[in-house]
Amino acid sequence: MYDIIIIGAGPAGMTAAIYARRANKSVLVLEAKSYGGQIINTPDIENYPVAAHISGFDFATRVYEQAQALGAEFKFEKAVDLKEGKVKTVVTQQGSYEARAVIIATGSENRKLGVEDEDKLVGRGVSYCATCDGAFFRKKKVAVVGGGNTALEDALYLADLAEKVYVIHRRDEFRGDESTAAQLRERENVEFVLNSRVTKLIADKKLTAVEVTDNSGAVTELPVNGLFVAVGRIPENQNFASVIKLDSAGYAEAAENCRTAAPGVFVAGDNRVKEVRQLVTATADGAVAATEAIKYLSAADQ
Ligand code: NAP
Question: Residue 169 CA: which ligand 1 atom is closest?
Fold first, then answer.
């Protein structure tokens, strides 16, 4: 049995591991994919104190190595269930593990558009990560869907590579920063397709075009080889919904101290109800959740 199991090896989970190990608690970190979480898709982090420029992958690797050097154990298994009690059981696709405290730091996954063949065309034109896949579309025509900061920044990144970038957004106002939208307006190869939704993906083996329907019902076809979907993210809490309370959008309800209503179960990072979801707030959550878990374990020992 471990003192603390941390579910998720993103910045929040790995920071929690560092804090827990420094307090000499035994720690297992479970991760469904690879360490790092969504930050590994960021080419250049500029807003984390001290590291003026560092890639998300380098950042994640350094935190991973730091947690490992302090003695945190990592297993790359997907946690599919959590059973509460004085001893908690985390069930993975491969087995199950016990701990006295659990920190859920699962972050979020890409929201899908929900159009037919979207899943089938991933890797054949449909992508959720411009910085990962943008280079495949050098001098080609692409579209970005969404109006948040991710979509706008993706469009700017792609405008340097692609021949043409359509930005398809369902409203005529962007949710993302005006300064980024202004930079896009300056680009000759960027075209806004506003008040519109992608209604169909057209492909032979690979994507060749998207059908777009505007809010008046008019349908057009845009010839694109790449479609970058950037319509937000969904918190990955569903597997733990029997133990933690979720809000209507699926975020885990926990106080600022990361404690949930379930004793010994904590939530850290982007999957928690919070105002600001940034790298620095994720790592801060990891520190807070681990500190609270350590306090919980000490109280249980008395
Ligand atoms: P977001 O801010 O939630 O934006 C999602 C966008 O997708 C919205 O414009 C939304 O439209 C649209 N959308 C949602 N569902 C859709 C659907 N089914 N079909 C079509 N469009 C849909 O998500 P995000 O851009 O991923 O950003 C997440 C958070 O990270 C934000 O707080 C953002 O500011 C932050 N972020 C910050 C930076 C930075 O600081 N440099 C960079 C990236 C992200 P509506 O606007 O109509 O709702």
Answer: 21
Pairing label, strands 126-127, 226-229: parallel
Does the model's pTM come out above 0.85?
Answer: no
Active site annotation includes 258: no
Does the CB atom of residue 148 touch ligand 1 within 6 A? yes
Pocket test of ligand 1: the residue of 108, 150, 167 to mutate, having most ligand atoms within 8 Å of its CB, is 150
Q: How confident is the model at residue 199 (pLDDT cuts 50, 70, 90)?
A: very high
Q: Ligand 1: does its nearest atom lie under 6 Å from the Cβ of 235?
A: no
| Ligand 1 site, residue 153, Cβ cutoff 6 A | yes
3 state DSSP class of 229: strand
pLDDT in tens, 125-167: 999 989 888 999 999 999 999 999 999 999 999 999 999 999 9
Is residue 184 domain-shared with residue 213, that is, in the same domain?
Answer: yes
Among the candidates 229, 261, 281, a domain finishes at 229
**Angle between helices 11-22 and 56-69 in degrees, nearest 10:** 20
Residue 285 located in a structural domain: yes
Is 103 part of a structural domain of the chain? yes
- Specify the DSSP class assigned to residue 277: -
- For the record, the structure tokens of 158 come out as 């792609």
Number of domains the chain is built from? 2
